Amino acid sequence: MNKFFIRRWVGAFLIFIFVPIDAQVTGDLKVAFIRVSFPVQDYAGISGNGDFLYDSNPIVCGEYTIDPPPHDKKYFQSHLVAVNNYYRSISYGKFGLDLENSTVYPIDNQSAYKLQIPMNYYNEIDKDSDHEKRITELLKDALNSAYEIDRINFDHYDLIVIAHPGVGQDFKLPFLDPTPEDIPSTFIDKKMINTHLGGPITIGNATVSQAVIIPETQNHLYYDESIFSQLSNPCDVQYSITGTLAMMIGFGVGLPPLWDIQSGQSGVGVFGLMDQGSNNGRGIIPAPPDAWTSIYAGWSTTLIIPSFSKVELINNTQNQIAKIPISQNEYFLIENRSNWFRENVSIDSARYVVWEKTNTYPEFINVLIDSVGVKKNEYGVITEIPNYNLGLPASGLLIWHIDEQKIHKGMGSFSINSDRNHRGIDLEEADGAQDIGYVSNLFTDPSSGYWGDMWFSDNQEYYRANADGHMNFSTFSYPNTKSNSGANSGIKINKISKVGEKMSFEYSSSYNVSNINDINKSIIFQWDVDNDGDLDFLGEGDSLWWGDDLNNINSFYKTTKDNYQICVAQNSDPVALAIVSESENNYLFEWFEFDHNTNDFVLKWINKKENSESIKLMKADGDKEQILVQHKKSFFIVDKKEMIEIDVKENDFPYQSKFGPSTIFYDDRIEINESSIQYGNYKSITLIDLENDGHTEIIALDSEGNIHAFDQNLYSKSGFPVSTSAIGTILSMDLLGDDDRELIYQREDGAISILSSDGDELDQIMLENQLVGLGSYSGKHVIITKKMVIFFKDDLDGETNEWNYTYSTSDNSRYLNTKPPSEQQFIINWDQTYAYPNPAYGNKIIYRIEVSMAELVEINIFDIAGFTVKSLNQETIISKVSLADDIASSIRGVIEIPWDVSKIESGVYLAKIVVTNKGKSESKIVKVGVIK
């Protein structure tokens, strides 16, 4: 795009109306094209005199003049033909204009409906607050005038276009604008009409709810002679109204704008119709829509690309858009665009060749008309282009980052790309700068996009930001494949080819993953089904299935039902499954057992409860072939014969650790041994020995999605709570090989987060599918999602100290298998022993002390002069101390001892903390401040 013209925003006065997210723009559009003129006079701030240009005298550009007069009916009909050819081409024949039933009014060739209000009224200078209202009045005045004379039935048309004399207030030159009262091109919608006219426009028996305002031309050369003296190549800054009309019709059929309509800052620049791309090729070659808009309009579909595959995309071809998922709401779209008019030759490269030979740089419009094979009709209008990508700055791949959540949020207000830092449709610019919409300076301004933004192997702009020896798009490149939340997607686009009719790349993951190839299957959990010592997969989809691996699937129950609840009902041989599923407002209870003879599961019995609501599978008893379920507040045992209500409560199924206390989980609290209580609104809990030292911690997820960690005394662990947006139970195992257990959970945005045992975030993995659990596969610890497993450290731990699923194991055990407490390595943990609040402004200081095992804890507090102020011991411990299993008089873990300072004077105090166990003592000095 010529840098001497910087596009202003079109439709600056838009008031918004919701557009359906699943628009299908197909068929033929009937257009009523209404020409209006104004009182002829000398308008100081207007291009022209208020009437159309009918004088056919050419300007000095000769045969290279764009949109030459006369601007009569045939001229505007020619532009409808041009726009129809554009849409037929870029929609692959699915959408265009109904030229036979579209009409340019008035019928006479050189005529217009003359309005009585001066032209400059509709965009009067210094009347900015009135501009929106007045341009809406222009629509009403034009419709009334047309109806009064020709009695037009506007109900016969799908869209109204109002054309006025002069140029549009849509561009600015690199000097003071001499015509600030030119009327801007605008799409007027229903809400705008209702706001400023008090209701819809009724003309005869028809109602008009939206329309388009455009100028007769965008060629300033017809009006401003000073351009010839100020620009060295004035003929190269001519623009056609074809691009403007194409974009305005895009508005009319529901294509959203992709720039910030408030500031005018570009969103996708020259790479899409609904932004600066409408003016590509001097407005003669409007860019095709971006990949998302083409799909949204129903003109193209995507190719779903399997991981670890080589992808080939044919340029400028329907349905050649690769879709690579990031998460449930985000994905990449990749397309191959070529601006060649013959092999390896673009308009700009042809100009460069001429310059090399003649030292003269030919004008863009000259090469376009002489060499490209465009079609110009007898009225001087270019009506057909062989390739509407010719106006792009280069050829190559375009990689689009799509955020459907952002698109949904911004669709109704036309603000999809209003936030430059988080666009709904964002071009991943290969030069790494992401500078579309960010103006730098006039001569190197990349704010509208340039050739360096496209992906091809010899793009040297990429290597300015990336020192790698080959082009790739990954977590570590600039730009990168992370999600908009900053999570790692693991997506790697590598080995991008040179520009060509076919361009290729390799799609893989920076994580070591294994996928299910069957798109109709997904994973539920793992269990050793055939008792061969290795975990197998069980899953659902178009059938229930099991398999030794992800691509050796054995279907055993064809079904179209959903809303499954499944657990292992019998973990001995033969393995049994208990299944609860919803079917026609009933709940089915089914019992399957594995048959080694058939190597398959066999249905043993089925039971049904009619008109049940909210059935919850608790667990099963394989010995008795019974399934325990919860229905509302009642509990039932279901077997092959009957369903029996039993007198238990949900908290009768405690969470237990092999070497730790029993934990009960209520709606409003967590209890340990009925002595220690932690109140709070928690959604789920997990038991895990975070440090793998034999001391079990309780991990609780609260209703806000934050993660809490408590020791066995229900004191908060250091580093917790973690403020996040977790959904589902927090899972845990050693993924990274550091012996400590990591916490693994899925966030609301779909990312899987991995936390250290101290609550620090170690990784964020953005995945399209749901976290299922943790397990072991091919000798590695793995994260399991519905469609893949992600590999981590070697599996050397067996099944010790892991919380793999919502209820720990696939049989809903709620049980943590841990190793016994380690030999005592310390008496007092120095790092986790301190006082808070410090300094104290209130009535209490609490000494927090972590001990491995202790018989006595003493605190002697001295003032700065060395005099004893207070002595404390474990008799004053806050009532959350749990007794060790083997020594009733000993304590372990974290204890808290309060010191009442309500009557203590301000000053600095020293506390000597002494911890004694089995005749050995350790001490620590803690300095505290008291401020009154």
Proportion of residues in helical segments: 10-25%
* First-last Cα distance: 69 Å
State the secondary-structure class.
mainly beta
Alpha plus pi helix count: 10
**Rg:** 36 Å
Spell out the key features of this protein.
932 residues; mainly beta; six-stranded mixed beta sheet; 60 strands; elongated; disordered N terminus
Describe the model:
- The chain contains 10 helices and 60 strands.
- It is mostly beta strands and 932 residues long.
- Among the domains are: 6-254, no CATH class; 515-648, no CATH class; 656-816, no CATH class; 834-930, Sandwich (Immunoglobulin-like), CATH 2.60.40.
- Strands 3, 5, 6, 7, 9 and 12 form a 6-stranded mixed β-sheet that branches. It has a 5-stranded mixed β-sheet with strand order 13-15-16-21-22.
- Helix 1 packs across helix 5 (242-252), helix 2 (128-150) crosses helix 3 and helix 7 (347-358) crosses helix 8 (364-371).
- The longest helix is centred in the first third of the chain and has 23 residues, at 128-150.
- The protein starts with 5 loop residues before the first strand and ends with a strand.
Chart the SSEs and their pairings.
Elements: E1 6-7, E2 27-29, E3 31-37, H1 73-90, E4 95-97, E5 103-105, E6 113-114, H2 128-150, E7 159-167, E8 171-172, E9 186-188, H3 190-197, E10 201-203, E11 206-208, E12 211-217, H4 226-230, H5 242-252, H6 291-296, E13 302-304, E14 309-314, E15 321-325, E16 330-337, E17 340-342, E18 345-346, H7 347-358, H8 364-371, E19 375-376, E20 382-384, E21 396-403, H9 404-411, E22 425-427, H10 460-465, E23 472-473, E24 491-494, E25 502-509, E26 513-515, E27 521-527, E28 536-541, E29 543-547, E30 553-558, E31 565-570, E32 576-583, E33 586-595, E34 600-610, E35 615-621, E36 626-631, E37 634-638, E38 643-646, E39 656-657, E40 663-665, E41 669-672, E42 676-679, E43 682-688, E44 697-702, E45 707-710, E46 726-733, E47 742-747, E48 751-755, E49 761-766, E50 771-777, E51 780-785, E52 788-794, E53 815-816, E54 834-836, E55 844-854, E56 856-863, E57 868-873, E58 891-900, E59 907-917, E60 920-930
Parallel strand pairs: 2-4, 3-5, 3-6, 3-7, 7-12, 13-15, 39-53
Antiparallel strand pairs: 1-8, 9-12, 10-11, 14-25, 15-16, 16-21, 17-18, 19-20, 21-22, 23-24, 24-25, 26-52, 27-28, 28-29, 29-30, 31-32, 32-33, 33-34, 35-36, 36-37, 37-38, 40-41, 41-42, 43-44, 44-45, 46-47, 47-48, 48-49, 50-51, 51-52, 54-55, 55-58, 56-57, 56-59, 59-60
Helix pairs in contact: 1-5, 2-3, 7-8
